[in-house]
């Protein structure tokens, strides 16, 4: 903290001046290791090329991993495994033909 470098003040006092808790001052974020998720996802997608995220996540759940779906989806997108969504193809509108008038009775 710059306040401690410029003035001889304790950490407690400097945190109180800046209105910051000491827990936040000492906090070190724990970065999670996603290498296991990456390897499991790559094995599943190598075996099943056309599977999207929901099927891959269901397979991971069946393999009894306890990962959150948001975490798995983040890794899934980082590996650029998300598939292109195929939209429904539009059918051109048909123009109905006019019915022909029958000349004789019983004629089809």
Question: How much β-strand is present in the residues?
Answer: under 5%
Poorly predicted residue ranges: none
- Number-wise, the strands total 0
Largest sheet: none
Number of helices: 6
Q: Name the overall outline.
A: elongated
Query: What's the rounded overall pLDDT mean?
Result: 88
Class from secondary-structure proportions:
mainly alpha
Supply Rg.
32 Å
Gap between N and C termini: 95 Å
The H-and-E topology, N to C, reads as: HHHHHH
Can you describe this structure in just a few lines?
By secondary structure, the protein is mainly alpha-helical. Helix content is 47%, strand content 0%. It is elongated, with a radius of gyration of 32 Å.
How does this structure look, described?
The protein is an all-alpha fold. 47% of the residues lie in helices and 0% in strands. It has helices at 2-6, 11-18, 22-26, 35-47, 53-62, 69-78. The model has no long low-confidence stretch (mean pLDDT 88).
Task: Write out key terms for the chains shown.
108 residues, mainly alpha, 6 helices
Furnish the topology, listing elements before pairings.
Blueprint: H1 2-6, H2 11-18, H3 22-26, H4 35-47, H5 53-62, H6 69-78
């Amino acid at each position: 903290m710059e306040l401690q470098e410029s003035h001889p003040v304790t950490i407690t006092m400097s945190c109180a001046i800046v209105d910051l808790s000491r827990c936040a001052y000492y906090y070190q974020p724990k970065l999670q290791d996603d290498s296991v998720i990456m390897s499991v996802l790559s094995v599943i997608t190598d075996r099943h090329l056309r599977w999207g995220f929901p099927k891959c996540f269901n397979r991971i759940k069946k393999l009894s991993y306890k990962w959150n779906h948001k975490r798995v989806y983040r890794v899934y997108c980082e590996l650029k495994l998300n598939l292109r969504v195929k939209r429904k193809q539009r059918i051109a509108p048909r123009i109905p033909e006019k019915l022909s008038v029958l000349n004789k009775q019983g004629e089809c």
